[in-house]
Amino acid sequence: MNKRELILDALQELLYEGTAGTASVQDIASKAGIAKGGLYYYFKSKEEVLDALVERQYSNVIETCRIKLAAVNVAASEKIKLLLYFYRSTAVDQSIDVALHEPQNAAIHQKSMAFIMRQLAPIVADILQQGVAEKIFVCDQPEQMAEILLSPIIFLLDPGLFTWTDHEVQLKLKALAHMLEASLQAPADSFAFLYENWTQQSLK
């Protein structure tokens, strides 16, 4: 294993231990069993190590979603439903997911959500453009609409940031569905899948 991966593994271990948020570059290097200067050969700062760890954990998940979507030939609204399903069902290290929701790891958690947003938004934008071509959506700004669609799902409904009751979450999802249908001039109930058969597990 190369030193770059050792460094990322070290930060991941610190994440499990609950000390990644306060760990210094020296702490990470020591955990990796290398000199501090060795870490700086691969990364300019702790922030770069954090970014690289987040990218390593989630890039495979996003790419898997992209590949699965490319293999299906369905209408745009169904493709959005499938994207969310693929994202939720694609395996990610559950220990990391739990650790990211610990208060002391808030900064890394925020980075992970921002990374997911940046990676998923272009995929959703392409689907919205497909919907325009299919004449089931009207959308002049697919990139911005994609971010609006994802923001509540990624940020507002994150259990590490907010504590909502099941009923409150379902109401928010229903409001989001209605807003999207109105904004995109989509057929009624095109986004009903967001709140129908909703369970707490379905958003994790």
From TrEMBL:
Gene3D superfamilies xref list: Tetracycline Repressor, domain 2 (1.10.357.10)
Entry keywords, A to Z: DNA-binding
DNA-binding region: 24-43
Start and end residues of each HTH tetR-type domain: 1-61
Molecular functions per Gene Ontology: DNA binding
InterPro entries assigned: Homeodomain-like_sf, HTH-type_Tx_Regulator, HTH_TetR, TetR/AcrR_C
SUPFAM superfamilies per the UniProt record, alphabetical: Homeodomain-like
Pfam family, one: TetR_C_39
Name of the protein this chain belongs to: HTH tetR-type domain-containing protein
